[in-house]
Amino acid sequence: MGLFSRKSSDPFDTPQGKRDAAADAERQAQEFRAKGETEKAEVCEDWAAKTRRAANDLDHY
Protein backbone atom coordinates (compact mmCIF):
# COMPACT_ATOMS: atom_id res chain seq x y z
CA MET A 1 0.00 0.00 0.00
CA GLY A 2 1.48 3.35 -1.04
CA LEU A 3 1.69 6.49 1.01
CA PHE A 4 -1.21 8.20 -0.76
CA SER A 5 -3.41 5.17 -1.31
CA ARG A 6 -5.05 5.14 2.11
CA LYS A 7 -8.53 6.53 2.61
CA SER A 8 -9.07 8.50 5.77
CA SER A 9 -12.38 8.88 7.53
CA ASP A 10 -11.11 12.04 9.22
CA PRO A 11 -12.93 15.03 7.68
CA PHE A 12 -9.90 17.20 8.52
CA ASP A 13 -8.03 15.33 5.77
CA THR A 14 -10.20 16.97 3.09
CA PRO A 15 -9.99 20.55 1.81
CA GLN A 16 -13.53 21.27 3.03
CA GLY A 17 -12.76 19.75 6.42
CA LYS A 18 -9.76 22.04 6.74
CA ARG A 19 -11.87 25.06 5.72
CA ASP A 20 -14.50 24.15 8.32
CA ALA A 21 -11.81 23.84 10.99
CA ALA A 22 -10.35 27.21 9.96
CA ALA A 23 -13.78 28.83 10.21
CA ASP A 24 -14.19 27.35 13.70
CA ALA A 25 -10.80 28.76 14.70
CA GLU A 26 -11.77 32.19 13.36
CA ARG A 27 -14.98 32.11 15.42
CA GLN A 28 -12.95 31.14 18.47
CA ALA A 29 -10.56 34.02 17.78
CA GLN A 30 -13.49 36.44 17.72
CA GLU A 31 -14.68 35.10 21.06
CA PHE A 32 -11.21 35.55 22.56
CA ARG A 33 -10.98 39.10 21.20
CA ALA A 34 -14.37 39.90 22.72
CA LYS A 35 -13.00 38.75 26.09
CA GLY A 36 -9.85 40.82 25.61
CA GLU A 37 -7.61 37.75 25.23
CA THR A 38 -5.54 39.06 22.33
CA GLU A 39 -2.74 36.49 22.47
CA LYS A 40 -5.14 33.54 22.28
CA ALA A 41 -7.01 35.24 19.44
CA GLU A 42 -3.78 35.70 17.49
CA VAL A 43 -2.87 32.04 17.91
CA CYS A 44 -6.29 31.02 16.59
CA GLU A 45 -6.00 33.42 13.65
CA ASP A 46 -2.53 32.13 12.76
CA TRP A 47 -3.71 28.54 12.90
CA ALA A 48 -6.75 29.36 10.77
CA ALA A 49 -4.58 31.02 8.13
CA LYS A 50 -2.20 28.05 7.99
CA THR A 51 -5.12 25.63 7.79
CA ARG A 52 -6.72 27.57 4.92
CA ARG A 53 -3.41 27.49 3.04
CA ALA A 54 -3.25 23.72 3.57
CA ALA A 55 -6.80 23.38 2.20
CA ASN A 56 -5.84 25.38 -0.86
CA ASP A 57 -2.77 23.19 -1.34
CA LEU A 58 -4.95 20.06 -1.22
CA ASP A 59 -7.21 21.53 -3.90
CA HIS A 60 -4.31 21.35 -6.32
CA TYR A 61 -3.82 17.59 -5.92
In short:
The chain is mainly α.
Describe this structure in words.
- The chain is 69% helix and 0% strand.
- Helix 1 runs antiparallel to helix 2 (38-59).
- It has two helices and no strands.
- The protein has helices at 15-34, 38-59.
- It is mainly α.
- The chain has one domain (11-59).
**Number of alpha- plus pi-helical segments:** 2
Q: How many beta-strand elements?
A: 0
Order of helices and strands: HH
Spatial extent as radius of gyration: 14 Å
Give the domain tally.
1
Low-confidence stretches: none
Given helix and strand content, the structural type is mainly alpha
The portion of residues assigned to helices is 55-70%
State the end-to-end CA separation: 19 Å
Task: Kindly report the average pLDDT value.
Answer: 87
- Beta content comes to under 5%
Q: Main beta sheet: strand number and arrangement?
A: none
Q: What is the general shape?
A: elongated
Core attributes:
61 residues, mainly alpha, 2 helices, 69% helix, 0% strand
Topology of helices and strands:
Blueprint: H1 15-34, H2 38-59
